[in-house]
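Reading a protein record of the kind used here takes only a little practice. Think of the row as the fold of the chain written in a discrete alphabet. With that in mind, consider the following protein and its fold in token form:
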Amino acid sequence: MSIVEQSTKLDLERIIFIGRTFKEYMDMFSFSEDDLSSKKILDCPAGACSFAAIGEKVGLNITACDIVYDHSVESLKGKGSRDIAHTMKHMEQAKGNYIWNYFGNVEGLKKHRVSALNDCTSHMKLSSNRYIPAELPTLPFANEQFDITLSAHFLFMYADRLDYDFHIATINELLRVTKDEVRIFPLVDLEGNRFEQLDRIINYLTVQGYKVDELSSKYEFQKNANSMLKIIK
């Protein structure tokens, strides 16, 4: 399907629009609803995740941010559906690279991904002000606008295409718009190896005066993707 958009927008076919569920987020980042009940939270980049959608239903204040959010909801839902179908078709051959305790099997994984996409795109129609388009490493938010920022499956994972300078610029920007803490998950690249520049980044942040911890997570799907970085201002 060809998608006609303004020429200034990202070509939607260049990205994969797949997301995680609210429960996955809570497990990845080791939060309870009570932990977040009085916080302003940023999810960046949020993709097709249902964190903001389900979060609002349980009374949380969550803003989602992603480069693709200037596309129509219909375009995003169509892209997400195609991406889920494509991913699941190839997951059988690659399933040895994953741990299936969380989802059970490929069909269980598909149900989670479809649920996240449907919840996300339905919420976009009702609360479009919660979905802000932005291209990292620049965000359209005020200094310390959010109490907590969560960033999943972007930084560190794409070590083959996002260099050290981009990581530093992006983390600095996430910290700029955050009052209390930033959490980044996971700490490995797409091959499941610890991000090779991670110690350098931790040293940089420590020198800047931030408290940085590597914490284990109870969520693990990709092998070795079971820890996060917690940066406290």
Summary: Residues 1-10 have pLDDT under 50 and may be disordered. Residues 9 and 70 are 7 Å apart (CA to CA).
